[in-house]
Amino acid sequence: MSNRYRCPFENLLILDFNTTCEQNNYDYPSEIIQMNVTVINIRDKMIREDQTFNRFVRPVINPVLSDYCSRLTGIDQNSINTADVFHVVYDQFVEWLREHNFQEKTFAFVCEDHQTIWLHAQYQYLLRDRSMPAIFRQWINITTVLQYLIPERNYDNLPGETFVDKSSNFYNIEFVGNSHNSMDKSSYLAKLTKRLLDDNNLVTVNRVLRCNVNSRRVPLNVDPNWRTTFQSAMLVFGRMLPLVPAVVYTYFTDDDYAKCQYCKNGPDVCTGVVHEQFPYEVYEQLVEPSAFASAARLDIDFDGEDEDEVEDEEDVNDENNVNDENDVNDEDDVDDKDED
C-alpha cells in the first residue's frame, strides 16, 4: 500500500441527494428533499465520521411527498414539513464548509454517477432561476472509476442489479441501511471510495459540466412512452437541460476549476440558459407539455419554429481532452437511479 493516496485533493466530499418523485412518472419536477455529505480526509486516510453534513429540504412545488417517495426513501412528511427550503440549506452547507476549513479547489465531490449533479443539482438551481455554483461544476463519478478497474471492463457481469449491489459484492463491503436514502448511500460510497484509494487507485475529477456538445446536434426521436421509461426520459432531459456532463481525462484544478471546457467561461457566464442548442424538435414531438420543463421554464422560448442552425468549427474534440457524454446514457447509468 502506498504511503500517500493517489488523489490531488485534501478532502473528498461524498455527495448524495434524495428528491421528490412519483412511481412510474419521470416527467416530474423533482426537488431535493435530503442532502448528505460524508468526508474522506486524504492526508489522514480516514472517513471523518465527525464531519458529516445531513439536512432534510422542504420542497416548494410539491410540498407533500407521494406515498411512493416516502416508502422508497424512508423520509416521513413531518421531517420535510419542519425542514428549510433549498437555498437556506445550501447556505448552511456553505457555512459548514467554512467551519471545517473546506476551501474551494482543495476538495472535490464524489458522486455515484453523473445524475447527482447534472440532473438533480442543476434542476434545483433552474427551479430557483440561479446559475450553478462553482463547486458543482466538476466531480468524481465513482461508477466510472470502478468500471475502469474491472478486468476487461466486465462490469455488467458482476453479480447484482444496481451499482451498490455490484460494488458491494465485488469488494465485499456490506451496505447498511436503505439504498435509496442519501445518508445511507453517502456512507456506503465513502467506504467504497476509501477502498479504491487504499488499493492505490487514482481518484480524481472525471466529469465536468459544459454548455455545448456535439451529440445534441443529432436529432432525437422521442420515445412516445418517455414519461414512464427511465432511459428514454434521460435522453429527453439530456436535450432539455442547459448544461451537459462531459468526460474529462486530464483535469488541473488551477486551470480547469469551474470553467466550461467549451466556452471557457466561469459559472456566472456559462449558464447554458441562453440555449444555443435549444431542442425545438424534442418539444415538437411531445404530445402534451412537459411538467419537468415547464416547472423550470426550460420551454419558455419554444415557438414551434425551426431552430437556426449554428455551425461552430470549435465544436470538435478540443484541445482540452474533453468528450461529450453520449446523450447522457453511457455505461454509468445503472438501474437504481430511476427510482430516487
Describe the structure.
This protein is of the alpha+beta class and 340 residues long. It has one domain (11-219, 242-279): Ribonuclease H-like superfamily/Ribonuclease H (Nucleotidyltransferase, domain 5). 29% of the residues lie in helices and 15% in strands. The chain has 11 helices and 8 strands. The protein has helices spanning 67-73, 77-81, 86-99, 115-127, 142-149, 163-171, 182-198, 230-240, 253-256, 280-285, 291-295; strands at residues 11-19, 32-41, 46-56, 107-111, 138-141, 207-210, 244-248, 322-324. The chain has an 8-stranded mixed β-sheet, with helices on both faces. Strand 2 (32-41) and strand 3 form a beta hairpin. Helix 6 (163-171) crosses helix 7. It is globular, with a radius of gyration of 19 Å. 41% of the residues are buried. The model is unreliable at 305-322 and 329-339 (pLDDT under 50). Pfam families: RNase_T. InterPro entries: 3-5_Exoribonuclease, ERI-1_3'hExo-like, Ribonucl_H, RNaseH-like_sf, RNaseH_sf. Keywords: Exonuclease, Hydrolase, Nuclease. Residues 303-340 are annotated as: Disordered. This is Exonuclease domain-containing protein.
